[in-house]
């Protein structure tokens, strides 16, 4: 089946998002900062305003309260279908980072003595949580090195460091710096082959916007995302937990039925706006699938997203029209290599003699928004092994166009020419 997003469909897609072509503060611009936070669906904006005005809470004897609980129940089922999860053990929290800390804390404190294992590819959300809670639990924390050439990590990397006494392991689904995905299913299978009872927690924050999620096939215990990176809004994160992890000791109110993971009254609007996200994936998938099954349509949306982002990355790296791609620039370093099949809509690069912050500023002046990644607490784990102080991150999404890529490449040509 072809998953090409046609010019007519891209117009329909872009019409569903806010601020596609212009920043409300700076005016017209190309938005290639999707890894920092994707564009927001218009439906999410509308739902947020509607829900913010409702004064009622769940658990009351009135129609409004029952309607709110119905929205939450419906959203959890939407999440189950979207993530391909075996159950609806979903809950929301302050942010993806906060939720990763909570899941990792419960896993470190709720398992027998043994080692905690993660990789150097991971965001500090998981590395920091493991470092803290492994120490509190009196367990060694092992950080295995990722493959700097590919900008990813695989089963073989874990096999060298996981032992039968590994009780907690973390996996990053997609790197926000290299842009490379990880085969979570294969890595988890490798971990379980050595340590069958290990609690495995996945950071899916960077991956979710690209679709093709299938938690049931991963055989993991926790999966966390930040919805503002998948077309929703700031202010909440979403976590899924296996029945095993859900039953481990964790913070909750004394006497609360079913030992819930949520603390205090949650914002129903968080759940409702994620239902808007799932509805969007459903609509997009219906442009490629006639199936009456919602899960099948959502999977089709993920394939279309992947195909569009791969096409955009190809144009960015190898050129479009008469414009040369980044890979053809003199003195360029492409993190993770040029033709890497693990790439998910993101290209991080550096040019000799042009500091990344200066390139980002020059692109902004030319109406293209990208981001600098520095060798700081967020990105030093990726950049320092490469001997890089910083890089330019260009992150695309399926609503971006090849014309926008051309505008970026023209701007880069002008910047390079001016510097030369």
Describe it.
The protein has 420 residues and is α/β, with parallel strands linked by helices. The protein is 40% helix and 15% strand. It has 14 helices and 15 strands. The strands form four sheets. A seven-stranded mixed β-sheet has the order 4-10-9-8-7-5-6, with helices on both faces. A four-stranded antiparallel β-sheet has the order 11-12-15-14, with helices on one face. Strands 1-2 form a two-stranded antiparallel sheet. Strand 7 (166-172), helix 7 and strand 8 form a beta-alpha-beta unit. Helix 2 runs antiparallel to helix 10, helix 3 (63-83) packs across helix 10 (268-286) and helix 11 (294-318) runs parallel beside helix 14. It is globular and about 70 Å long. The termini are far apart.
């Amino acid at each position: 089946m072809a998953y090409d997003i046609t010019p007519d469909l891209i117009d329909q897609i872009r019409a569903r998002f806010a601020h596609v072509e212009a920043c409300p503060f700076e005016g017209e611009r190309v938005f290639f900062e999707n890894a920092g936070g994707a564009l927001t669906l218009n439906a999410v904006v509308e739902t947020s305003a509607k829900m913010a005005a409702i004064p009622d809470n769940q658990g009351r004897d009135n129609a409004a309260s029952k309607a709110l609980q119905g929205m939450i129940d419906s959203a959890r089922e939407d999440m189950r279908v979207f993530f391909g999860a075996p159950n609806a053990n979903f809950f929301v929290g302050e942010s993806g980072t906060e939720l990763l800390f909570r899941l990792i804390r419960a896993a470190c404190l709720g398992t027998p003595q043994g080692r905690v294992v993660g990789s150097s590819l991971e965001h500090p959300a998981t590395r920091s949580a493991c470092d803290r809670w492994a120490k509190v639990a009196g367990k060694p924390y092992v950080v295995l090195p990722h493959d700097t050439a590919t900008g990813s990590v695989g089963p073989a990397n874990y096999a060298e460091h996981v032992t039968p006494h590994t009780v907690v392991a973390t996996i990053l689904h997609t790197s926000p710096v290299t842009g490379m995905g990880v085969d979570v299913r294969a890595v988890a299978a490798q971990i379980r082959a050595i340590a069958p009872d290990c609690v495995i927690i996945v950071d899916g924050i960077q991956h979710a916007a690209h679709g093709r999620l299938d938690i049931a096939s991963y055989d993991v215990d926790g999966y966390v995302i930040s919805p503002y990176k998948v077309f929703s809004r700031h202010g909440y994160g979403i976590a899924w937990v296996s029945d095993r992890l859900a039953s481990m000791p964790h913070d909750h109110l004394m006497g609360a039925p079913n030992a819930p993971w949520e603390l205090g009254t949650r914002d129903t609007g968080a759940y409702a706006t994620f239902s808007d996200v799932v509805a969007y994936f459903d609509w997009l998938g219906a442009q490629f699938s006639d199936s009456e099954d919602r899960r099948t349509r959502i999977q089709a949306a993920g394939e279309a997203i992947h195909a569009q982002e791969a096409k955009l990355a190809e144009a960015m790296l190898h050129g479009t029209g008469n414009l040369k791609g980044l890979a053809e620039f003199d003195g360029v370093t492409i993190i993770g290599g040029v033709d890497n099949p693990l790439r998910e809509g993101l290209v991080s690069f550096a040019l000799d003699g042009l500091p990344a912050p200066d390139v980002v500023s020059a692109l902004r002046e030319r109406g293209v928004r990208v981001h600098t990644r520095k060798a700081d607490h967020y990105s030093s784990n990726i950049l320092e092994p490469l001997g890089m102080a910083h890089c330019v991150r260009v992150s695309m999404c399926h609503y971006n166009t090849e014309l926008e890529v051309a505008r970026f490449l023209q701007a880069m040509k002008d910047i390079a020419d001016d510097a030369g």
